[in-house]
Design goal:
Distance between the termini: 53 Å
Largest sheet: 10 strands, mixed
Order of helices and strands: HEEHEHHEHEHEHEEEHEEEEHEH
Oligomer: single chain
Structural class: alpha/beta
Helix content: 25-40%
Bound molecules: threonylcarbamoyladenylate, magnesium ion
Number of strands: 14
Length: 308
Amino acid sequence: MKESPITAAARLIREGQLVAFPTETVYGVGANALDSAAVERIYEAKGRPSASPLIVHVSSIEMARELLREWPGAADRLVQVFWPGPLTLVLPKSDRVPRRVTAGLDTVGIRMPNHSIALELIRESGVPIAAPSANRFSELSPTTAAHVRAALGDRVSMVLDGGPTQVGIESPVLSLAGPVAELLRPGMISQMQIEEVIGPIRVHATAPQAAHPSPGMHRKHYSPATRLLVVDGGILPQGRGAYLWIHEPAPAVRAIQMPADPHAYAARLYDVLHQLDSEGYDWIAVERPPSGMMWAGILDRLERASEP
Ligand code: TXA
Ligand code: MG
C-alpha cells in the first residue's frame, strides 16, 4: 500500500528533515523539536538569525507539559478554552527542549494548532514539532502551499497542502513566564478574550518604535518586497500603486475592497499582499484599519510590514 502524505511527512520529521504544513493561522516549516540538528535546518532554510526563538507545536496538553518546568493555573484555564487554536503560551522550559529551539532562552513558546493535518502530523511523528512561519526571514507569511513553494522551494523536503488557512495571521504570543501575563504579539484571539479567562494582562507596546521584548520580535517583519504604507483618509502617494480599502475608496491603478469584518479581513490579507507583490507596483497603500482590540493583530502586522 502506498504511504499517505502525512505518513511520509511524519517519517521525514523522524529522520530530521523539514516538512512544511498548514495550521489554522499560517503555514509552518517544521522539524523534530527534540533534535537540535534538525532544528538548525529550519534557521538555514529561512535565512533566519539564530537569536529568534521558535514555537513548538504539540498534539496534546500532556505533550506540552513534558516540555515545561511549570504549568500554572492560568495556562490550564487558557488551554481549556483556546486549544487547539491560535494561542501561543510562553512558559519556563524543561530540559527536554534543546536550547537551539528557544535561541538560548529559558522559556519556550508552545501551541496546539487547530488543524487536522498539523495534529495528525504531530501524532504520527510522535514528537513535538518546532515550526516558524514557512517564509524567508522578514518576508510575508504563507497562507497557501503555493506561497510556501515560492518562498522555500526545495529548501524543504515536503509541503503538505491543506488549502488556504482559515485565520490568516500568526497566533498571539502570551507570556506566562513572568509575574504578570504579557501579550507579546497580538493576534485574532483578542486581549479581551484572554482577560475574560485569566483577568487583566499587560500588553507589550507593539508600536513600531518599541524595543522588542524577546529576541526575534523584530520591528521590520511580515513584509512584501513592494513598499507598503498605512494611510488615513484615502491620501495616496504619486505613482502606480495598489490600494486596499475598507470604508473609503480612492483612485489607484488597482483598488481592492477588503472585508469590514476583522476575521474575514485577516483571512484574506496575506494572500492579497502576496498577489499584489507579484504585480510590480511602486507601492501598496492600506487604509488604516479601525481601532479596537479585534483589529490589534492586523494593525500590528501592517505597521511592521510598513517599517522602512
Ligand atoms: O501562528 C503562528 O504562531 C505560526 C504557526 C506556524 O504556528 N508560527 C509563527 O512562528 O508565527 P514565528 O517563528 O514566525 O513567530 C514566533 C513568535 C516570534 O515573535 C517569537 O519572538 C515568539 O513567537 N516567541 C517564540 N518563543 C518565544 C519565547 N520563548 N519568548 C518570547 N517570545 C517567543
Ligand atoms: Mg514568522
